[in-house]
Structure formats: C-alpha cells, structure tokens
Design goal:
about 475 residues, alpha/beta, three-stranded antiparallel beta sheet, 12 strands, binds pyridoxal-5'-phosphate
C-alpha cells in the first residue's frame, strides 16, 4: 500500500517547529541484535525477587502465591479484548462477573454497598472518606476530624488529609491495642471517622472493636475498617458485624492478585446501606436478566477511576473467591494464622516478639536487643536474608516497635519453607556485625540508596 502524495505545500521543518523542538542530530539509539536485547531483559528479570521465585514474608503486604489459573482466566479473549467504551449490551458477561463480585465482597464484608472503582487500598480509603464527607454534608453536620491509631499504615492519616479532614492519632496501649482512655478523650461531635485496622499491623485482633464502634457511633461518627489484613479473618468475622460502616479490600493481598510495582491494583470498598447513595458512579446493577452500569445516582461523589476500574485484578479476585468457595476462604485464613503462629513459635526463641506468643496472620519481632548488644539493626538482618534466598520481612513498620521486623508467611507456604526461613534467621542473629553491615554479599547491587532509587530511578538506556 502507498500513501497518496501530500496535497499541502512542502515546508522545511525549521519553519514548522520552534528551534528548541528540533534535534541537532539523530538520537543515540542503541544498535543491538534481538538476541542481545532478549538476553539483557531476561537476565534483568531474574535479578529481582518475586513470589514465583522466593519466599516473601513481607508483613502487611500478604505476598501469597498467585495461582496461574487466575492469570489464565483473566487472559481469556472475552475479557482481554473488551473495549471499555463498548455498549453495556455487548459486555453482559463481564458486567455479570463484576456484579457477582460486588455481591461476594458485600457478603464477606457484611456491608451491602460496593464500589469496584478504586485502584488501590489507599485509593479505597480516600474514596470511602469522600463518601463519609458527602454523607455528613448531606446531613448538614460539620465534622472535621478523622482518628487513626499510631500503629496504622501511613496511608490512613494521608487519606484523611487528602479528603480534607484533620488526622488525629490515637495511642496504642502496652498490649498494642487501641488505648481506650486516649480514644475517649479525643471523641467529640467533630469526629467524622475512626479508621481501624483489625487485625492490626502488629498482627493482633483488637477485641475492643465492638466497644470502640459503640463509642464512635454514640458521638455520631463512622467506623472505617482498613481491610489490608482481611486474610486473617475471611469467613470468620465480618467487619459489618463488628461495627464497621465502611471498609476497603486489597484484592492483590487477600485474593492473590499480583502486586505489580505500584499497579495496577484495586481497592474496592464496601459500605453500610445508608452510605450507598454516595458511592462513586457508575455501579453495576441488574434489571431482570440484564446487567448495566448505573449512572443515575444524584448523591454520588462521582467517578474516582476511569471505566470499570482495574478489571484484570478484579477478574483474578473473582476467580480466587469462586475457586475457594466459602469454606475454602475460611481455610485460607485458618492456614494463614496457623503458618504465622508456627513461625512465631520458632522465631521468638532468638528474636523478641514484644506482643506475645500468639498472633493472627503476621507478627512483629524486634532487633533492638541485637542492636544494643552487637550494633546489628533490623535492616542488617533484612539485607542478609537475601544471601539465604529469602526476601526480607517488612522493617521499621509499625512505628510503635523499635527495630521492628514484621513477618507474614501467608497460607501458601510449606512447613519446609518456614523451617528453612527460621533456620536462616537464627543463623543470621548469631553472625557478626562485620558480616552483616555490608550484606547482602551475593547480589549484584548490595545497598542502594533506596530513597534515591525510588525517587530518581534510572530507567533510560544511555551509552555513557
Ligand atoms: C495496613 C495497610 N493499609 C493500607 C495499605 C494501602 O494499600 P495499597 O498498597 O493497596 O494502597 C497497606 C499497604 O500495604 C497496608 O498494609
């Protein structure tokens, strides 16, 4: 095929573009053969750790194995080839899947209103707080404060601030649970929402949650449940039943979606009946046997994400939930809690675990004794684990425990893997500072400046 000759006058580029938009010379693009490029990227891909290659006990992130079956299902042409602007009647299958997923999440949460739009847990927090703000505005109530415990994930107070609230911190007590006196002192008719993570980031289920909900509801506030740790309580306890009015799920944690370098993720939210009018629009509804996107929601806060949300992650979550069924999901949580307690029972003999001998799906150990006695930090231990073929646990979070190491094995790991990890950790705690301060010794890069690496990544090829 040939393009027709242009019917516009031929003018030099220098006349058409400003001087600073013109290059002096062709860009110095690399001249490489395909095998060189393929080898470069294939080798690069093996330098990182992933759940497919290594045990990844990154507390709070729930790095469970992502079944390949879910990948295959999300890649079916009927899902993959759908265009987001297709009319509803041509995407009935996909809309049905999303509608059913809304129902399943509502059932697991014990909260009937669902929006699948938010693109991450933090985005779900922000969306739910915007829903709460719309609810209070509608009622003519001026509520300016969102309470978050000091063990909360940083996204909680950040979301509160982004939604226009003042974030106020509630202290934890000596057991790592909400300090009820501090909570009572900070409750008032200015409080819009109390954001609680339960089980919390110390891996503890706060049994006071019912009482907390009563107190917050008494002053007219709402309870938000940060659902990042739902892997511990699937089919065991429903946030709506223990007092939550709103929550988010992290499907990439709880329902085994891949964690993809910051995205794409999803953070669907569930809310109580009285908050449903404010949910983002559209939501998927069913009229008789037909599914459609409902935009006719006058009180909605509007869109928070384009199109249907990150559908690929939602399909994986749907596949995961349907594969396990209700009983299977309960067993997921039982095994996650069992694995964490098994590992805790081994680790506590050589690394103190300040919040006791029992946990939910994760636990927090501390390297502060090692630091005091041998100058070895949590970071040293975490880095050295890479030499033994294990990804590090989360370190220095939660902030309430000094030199913290938050370990979450998840339910998909075998006893052999947990034993090997505990053995490696035990070995490392007996090593010298000399060995540990420069660890890891077996990786291509040892200790990059992590802040610079994240903020100024060098992603471009240069021939320097
Ligand atoms: C307790 C807790 N809350 C919220 C979030 C935020 O979730 P996301 O990373 O999906 O934005 C995380 C993420 O790790 C978390 O651990």
């Amino acid at each position: 095929m040939q393009f027709p000759a242009p019917d516009t006058p031929d003018r030099p580029l220098t006349e058409l573009l400003p001087a600073d938009a013109l290059a002096d010379a062709p860009p110095p693009l690399p001249e490489l053969a395909e095998p060189d490029v393929v080898r470069h990227f294939t080798n690069l891909s093996t330098l990182n750790m992933s759940v497919d290659t290594h045990f990844y006990p990154l507390g709070s992130c729930t790095m469970k194995y992502n079944p390949k079956r879910n990948e295959r299902l999300a890649s079916l042409p009927g899902f993959l080839d759908v265009h987001p602007l297709q009319p509803d009647e041509t995407v009935q299958g996909l809309l049905r899947l999303l509608y059913d997923l809304q129902g399943m999440l509502a059932e697991i949460a014990g909260l009937p209103g669902v929006s699948l739009q938010p693109a991450a847990g933090a985005h779900g927090e922000l969306t739910a707080l915007m829903v709460a703000a719309a609810h209070f505005r509608d009622r003519g109530e001026k509520r300016t404060v969102v309470l978050t415990p000091d063990s909360a994930h940083g996204t909680n107070p950040a979301s509160a601030a982004m939604a226009g609230f003042d974030a106020v911190t509630i202290k934890s007590n000596a057991h790592g649970l909400v300090d009820m006196d501090d909570l009572k002192a900070k409750l008032s008719d200015r409080v819009a929402v109390f954001m609680i993570t339960n089980p919390n980031t110390l891996g503890l289920f706060d049994p006071q949650v019912g009482q907390i909900a009563e107190l917050v509801h008494e002053v007219g506030g709402l309870i938000y449940l940060d659902g990042a740790n739902m892997n511990a309580i699937l089919g065991k306890a429903r946030p709506g039943d223990f007092g939550a009015d709103m929550m988010h799920f992290n499907p990439h944690k709880t329902f085994s979606g891949p964690h993809g370098g910051g995205g794409p993720g999803a953070g669907p939210i569930c809310v109580a009946e009285r908050l449903t009018p404010y949910l983002p629009c559209p939501v998927v509804v069913k009229d008789g046997e037909t599914y459609r996107l409902d935009y006719d929601r006058p009180k909605s806060i509007g869109r928070v994400r384009s199109f249907f949300g990150n559908v690929g992650v939602l399909i994986r979550a749907y596949a995961y939930i349907r594969t396990h069924g209700a009983e299977g999901l309960r067993r997921v949580s039982e095994n996650a809690v069992l694995n964490a307690n098994y590992l805790l029972s081994k680790v506590r003999h050589f690394l103190p675990t300040p919040h006791g001998n029992r946990c939910m799906h994760e636990f927090v150990a501390t390297a502060s004794k090692l630091k005091k006695e041998k100058g070895i930090s949590a970071m040293d231990v975490a880095k050295r684990l890479l030499d033994f073929g294990f990804h590090a646990p989360t370190v220095y979070f939660p902030l309430t425990v000094p030199e913290s190491m938050m370990i979450e094995p998840t339910e998909t790991e075998s006893k052999e893997t947990l034993d090997a990890f505990a053995q490696a950790l035990f070995h490392i705690t007996g090593e010298t500072g000399e060995m540990l301060h420069d660890a890891p010794h077996s990786t291509i890069i040892s200790r990059p400046d992590e802040v610079q690496a994240a903020k100024k990544p060098r992603l471009r090829w240069t021939n320097e």
